[in-house]
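To: structure subgroup
Subject: Chain for Friday's discussion

All,

I'm putting the inputs and outputs inline so they're searchable in the archive.
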Amino acid sequence: MTATGPEKPSPVTIFVDGTSGICVTGTTLPELNRLVIEFFEVVDTSEIDVLTLDLSTVSACDQAASAAVRHAQSVCAERAMALRVVPSEAVRQVMAPRF
């Protein structure tokens, strides 16, 4: 606990190991877009082929999930990197094509 109250866990975890990525547990679209860009600014990506955007713990979302994935795809494409998305069921339902 700090003087201003209990610390809250970060809603976004950026990890780099054999499989680097961004794990999202809850955040806003602008913050996620910023974090995707910052990932490339702070991480040496010279040996990374795929960025994993882990949305598996997102329990509720709207069309913002699709926008976040499109943004991440664009950022990765600019850097010649593949994007792997791990969706939760809620994200999968929002991103599924509607006929």
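Points worth raising on Friday:
The chain has one domain: 12-95.
The first strand starts at residue 12 and ends at 15.

D.
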